[in-house]
Amino acid sequence: MATAADEDPLRAHLRSIPEYSTAKVNFYYSSLPSRKDSNPTGYSSALAWWRRTLVDLTARGLLSDDKLILHVDEQLREKLRWDKAGRPTSLGVIVAELAQSSDLVPTATYLASPAPDSFSVVSLLARPFWWSLNKVWGSSGVDLGEHADENEWKKRQGEYVVPDLVEKAAAALLPRLDDLHGTALSRLYTLRTFQSKLGALCLPGVTLSERDCRVLATYLSRKGHCAFDGEVIKFAAPHSTASTSSSLSITESDRSSLTLLNSLASLTGSIDTLTTLIASERARAAQLLSEKRPTALVKATLGAKKRSEKLLDERVAQRAKVEEVVWAIERAKGDEETLSALSLGATTLRTVLSSPTLQLSNIEATTSLLDDSLVAAQEVREAVDAVGRGAAEIDEDEVERELREMVAKEEKDAEEQREREVADTLESAGKVPVEASVARMAAGSRKGEEDGTREREKVAA
């Protein structure tokens, strides 16, 4: 019995899907066309489940090497075989329904379409249940007769692009390109180099196949992110605008540059191989010598090593020469981009300076008008300040007169207070000796006079 570690990855993943551990899987694997009328809710549920499952299995690369393309063939039905449920009976009808709704698109149709994004409006996995039910009631062109399963299976076998996965791959890749495309040559790819350098950056945990990369490059080119002629892919420079991206074209110099880059990669691979071979021959010669093998055999091995070393030196020199040429091309392309930017800047500046607003006569008129306006504004401020100063002027004589009146009133109030105190003292004369009363009144009078004098001195000061 196979252990969990030895179990086929596809089967292990199917086992993790909840429906495969319940009786529902028998319903999903059964013949579905007859249930469309008798049980439309169940039919729509099966359609939605198969859509999610097929998209998920394709994205994980569990059905084939392709992660954006679903291969509908006998191998697919066999791969989906499950215990007592057997093979999915209505897989052809399911594919027909998904093709009818453009959730699956024949690869040839997708690559030939001028607008591949039209095949997917929203994420398949995010579509609500009512959408699936609506597709059930409104679908057409799908055989649901007595032999629907067999008939649709014969018609629907082939390769289908999953548009939703293409959009997801593009959405994951595009934000990373600016950091990878700092130079002009770094933005040039063949399908093979695209797959080797960018294929692992698109969907989590998998690397796109070369066929996937063709589909993705087609999508990106029609969205304006790159130019693609079926062989060469040329991305727009980082932070490019839509107008500059739309003018992308693949030139002969781009093809020549890619040829040089491929030669450089080939030389690097050859150097690595020769380095490994030389180390192996050196070790073999040492082993032969330690085993006391014939001297001629040892010399032959050393001779082979010497020839490999000579060839290695040649390859290293060749790579250095190609690297020098590539560097010169890179510098020239960078200069070209810089000069193009400067030319665009000069044209833009000339356009701005030709504006009537920046003509000398208009500048002089505007400056004169501004000076007049500033003078008028100054006059207004001075007038307002004058009004404010007039309102703020104070009559010092009036202030002095008001102060004297306040001091006089204060003295009068103090005198009245002393008189009341004298009256109170006289009323209680029977209890207090006359001398003491007179002394207290005299002291109070003197104190009042002294306080008044001090108050007047303060005011005068």
TrEMBL record:
Biased composition (Basic and acidic residues): 406-423, 446-461
Gene Ontology CC: cytoplasmic side of plasma membrane; ESCRT III complex; multivesicular body
UniProt superkingdom: Eukaryota
Region (Disordered): 406-461
InterPro entries recorded: Snf7_fam
GO biological process: late endosome to vacuole transport via multivesicular body sorting pathway; vesicle budding from membrane
PANTHER family for this protein: BCDNA.GH08385 (PTHR22761:SF96), CHARGED MULTIVESICULAR BODY PROTEIN (PTHR22761)
Name of the protein: SNF7 family protein
